[in-house]
Amino acid sequence: MSKETFVVNGMTCASCVANVENAVNNLDGVDKAVVNLTTEKMSVDYSGNKVSPEAIEKAVADAGYEAQVYNPDTAKSQEEREEDKIHKVRERLIWSSVFTIPLFYLAMGPMVGLPVPNFLSPHHAALSYALVLLILTVPVMWLGRSFYSNGFRTLAKGHPNMDALVALATSAAFLYSLFGTYHISLGHVHHAHQLYYESVAVILTLITLGKYFETLSKGRTSDAIKKLMHLSAKEATVLRDGKEVKLPVDKVVLGDHIVVKPGEKIAVDGQVISGSSAIDESMLTGESLPIEKSVGKPVFAGSINGQGSLIYEAEKIGKDTLLSQIIKLVEDAQQTKAPIAKIADQVSAVFVPVVMAIAFVSGLFWYFIMGQTFTFAMTVAVSVLVIACPCALGLATPTAIMVGTGLGAEHGILYKRGDVLELAHKADVLVFDKTGTITQGKPQLVSSYTYGNSGVAALQLLASLEAKSEHPLSQAILVAAENANLDVLEMDNFSSLTGRGLTASYAGKTYLAGNQTLMAEEKVDLTSAQADFQNLTDDGETPIFLAEDGKLIGLFGVSDQVKADSADMVAALHQMGKEVIMLTGDNDQTAQAIAQKVGIKRVISQVLPQEKSRVISDLQVEGKSVIMVGDGINDAPALATADIGIAMGSGTDIAMESADMVLMKPNLMDVVKALKISQATITTIKENLFWAFIYNILSIPAAMGVLHLFGGPLTEELLAKEQVTAYLGIDPTADSLHIGHLCGVMMLRHFQRCGHKPLALVGGATGMIGDPSGKSQERNLLTEETLRHNVACIKKQLAKFLDFESDAPNKAELVNNYDWMKDFTFLDFAREVGKHITVNYMMAKDSVQKRLNGEARDGLSFTEFTYQLLQGYDFLHLYETKGCKLQMGGSDQWGNITTGAELIRRTNGGEVFALTCPLITKADGGKFGKTESGNIWLDPRYTSPYKFYQFWLNVSDEDAARYIKIFTSLSQEEVEALTAEHAEAPHLRVLQKRLAKEVTVMVHSEEDYNAAVEASGILFGNATSEALKKLDEDTLLAVFEGVPQFEVSRDALAEGVKAVDLFVDNAAVFASKGEMRKLVQGGGVSLNKEKLSAFDQVITTADLLDEKYLLVQRGKKNYYLVPSPGAG
What we know:
Blueprint: E1 2-9, H1 14-25, E2 30-36, E3 41-46, H2 53-62, E4 66-69, H3 78-108, H4 126-143, H5 145-157, H6 162-185, H7 197-218, H8 224-231, E5 235-240, E6 243-248, E7 257-260, E8 269-275, E9 277-280, H9 282-285, E10 291-293, E11 298-299, E12 304-305, E13 310-316, H10 322-336, H11 343-369, H12 374-388, H13 391-410, E14 413-415, H14 418-423, E15 429-433, H15 434-438, E16 439-450, H16 458-466, H17 472-483, E17 492-497, E18 501-506, E19 509-514, H18 516-521, H19 530-538, E20 542-548, E21 551-562, H20 566-575, E22 579-583, H21 588-598, E23 602-604, H22 609-621, E24 626-630, H23 636-641, E25 644-648, H24 653-658, E26 661-663, H25 669-704, H26 706-709, H27 715-721, E27 725-730, H28 742-753, E28 757-762, H29 784-798, E29 813-816, H30 817-821, H31 826-832, H32 839-843, H33 846-852, H34 862-865, H35 867-882, E30 886-890, H36 894-908, E31 913-917, E32 930-931, E33 934-935, H37 945-953, H38 957-966, H39 972-984, H40 990-1003, H41 1006-1020, H42 1025-1030, H43 1033-1039, H44 1050-1055, E34 1057-1058, H45 1059-1066, H46 1073-1081, ...
Helix pairs in contact: 3-4, 3-7, 4-6, 4-7, 5-6, 6-7, 6-12, 7-13, 8-10, 11-12, 12-25, 13-25, 16-17, 20-25, 35-36, 37-40, 37-41, 38-40, 40-41
């Protein structure tokens, strides 16, 4: 059986791991394949004579990924691979944004009034617009190709993930847009508004942003194994033929005798055959106190010798040593650790198939059952996929994890992988190492007892002895003496008694410091210290005896102290419902003492590193989620095996590399904080996913066309699909329309220009009743003769806006509801119409409620109440006789329109549509189209072209910007250019002038517009008498409305009268003849816009304007109108 490690590229989630493992495990000859998503490696046990590494690589390639045999000498490190990945995703995001931003601007900019050049406008150049969008979209799709390969692969395998939905939605939107572009090339330019290229690019770019966040949050994963390997000794001093020979470790053979000098590393595992020393095995056991080694005791590779010299026999070499086993344990734990299935992917596994099914069923339903066109059915299916595409879903988890890891970093908690945040809060059990985790990790002097009377302080003597030792316990004594401000004494005859203690002399006295064995050898009586010794050992302290000339003078207890916040941390975890276990290599008595101090109930002691990881595995087998918290090399296998490993920042590099989370501060309460941040992050992720789903849940039914079943907003689709017949009602209460009707008329005009058929309905019948629209007065009833006259006049006016005469299939028609209502008897109407609509339904309408609730004091007559039914019947009649599917009107007509739609539905189950526009108001909220003198009429008999022109010329800047969009046929680009020009120089009133011109020419004529402009110049400019003489009487009076008038006799003018007499005596234009004479001489008097040459010039009827008026101008601004009655 052979074993090989492969590097696998292209995996993104837990389902990718399953794909690769299944592909390789299915090969004949493969015993077991295990993939690690974090390290992107796969270890394979296989039979070399049945399957080759090349065949394994091919199987991975067939599954849609890439694999190659891992060569540690040439392969990039994990860190380098992570950096490469971040760099690639960042590059992809930048380039995607470069194409997406202009694409989004071109597609969406015109909708919010942003300028777009004509050659890229959907209104002016639909084909070039579509092609540019296509050209910008393709690179974004190429950059995001991994979404398609991963997505369609997971789809084919039957367990789709997020990428599958992204791939499906964007592919559907792209193909549909391509279909639209093809139609545009055939000349069907309305398809320019049904392109989804920007959706494709925006979705891919946003999901790429989410992937970038996710890649950043993964950070750098473990190089722990490499660091562990550095611990082993490179050389060993071997006794060969009685001589010491330096050999590389791999040349050592079993049975070799190896010499270890003070401070050297143990090269291989073995047994001491000569000498004794204290050996630091902390890297293996985690315990800070060195272990005394003498003949017959085992030593382990990687541990460090103290002050003594040893000779030991090699018993285990190479991969059999304890250090090699720890390395293998860490490697195996990392390789076999199951990837955490991300919440978003778990959700997608259910969500994607459901969305696909909804899209497919929706399309089939509309095509086969509802009889809609294939285009419509496809639009619904594509809409479901695009609406469901998880932009929000894809960003929900990465953004929350970015925030969570950032918050952790602020508190000194480093989450090495984002998915750790998703799992930490779920832990059932937290297992803590003792030394360096729950305790400080370094010995301290905690107890001292003195016996007898020594001339010098016992602690000072002990510190002076320990000063020449390198034993870790010595450091604890020296620190205590320093803290007590005790000086170290210079001692003589120092000697280290390996494994027992120290001896030296001072001031003629001999001192011994060491363990119980040393005291017994030197026959020092310990009876007086027996009780104190028992207390020390019960508390887990290491005793050090001090004797002076064979008599006991002191007993000191050294131990590793519990951290200040250990007990609080354990209590907090218990409160959160977590089980806490202590796992240590130390003896049971010491471990139990420490556990009791901090409140830990379960202790597992005297375990070796490999046993620690086994304990973790056993807990996991019980179905528990386990967090291991440690700091030493001996903890590395357990940290790697646990669901989540947490390393103390004060610990070893190997522990930190093996862990998933690092606490940079020594505070154990940060473990609690880490779990709380995880809980908060998960809550945020779930909230994000909830809101993403609320959007999807609310939007998907709309995309499915559910609203359409209830008469929903599919008017746009109807208009895009076929030529539609629509009507708009106008009341013939007068023989002219006024500008309040203009918005509706413009709707009909635009409607016809877009290829649809408009019906202008004049409400002969309803106009004779009135309209419950909130007015305080009911309308006057009209006679049939008046009605016919009004209808004829209105049709003549509408002909300026609509084509009634051509042979085009969409030529406009004028219909009058009086024609079908006049012969309807009351009983017939009640039976055929009234029975279908309830009074409750009619009473619920706002227009009726306003009249009934006291806003109009006179209430609502039955006559006017029936208006709603009459208008409803209009829609039914036109639907049945003209195929009319759409009614248009102001928003105040909504109640009446929906009554018509309901009547059609209840009568014959027909499907009709509505389109309303907001009521037009002025910027100040006032009613549009009214002036102090009344309505602005379209008929020049009631409102002269000059007055009409002046109305539009004098609207506010804000109103002009709105009105020019509503009441003219200017293109969007022209309006935007005019608005920009106006903003640069508002005083020139560019918008108002263009608005006044467009509307005046449309309603009246170019000639009337020019005359109105000239007339405006008479009062405010340098107009000539010729321009004045062209004005008709109505325009003249309109221009000089409000000017003082003085009437003169027609007879006097017929005979001729001097100007000075006429304008002083007959008409008091001047106060005196002298004043007039001076003004005339100064050129300050004009008659009919010509300078008066002499004050006594004779004025006759030949000078009259329109044979009726004289216009006198005194100075620059003072005008007087002098009518002469009797003129014909």
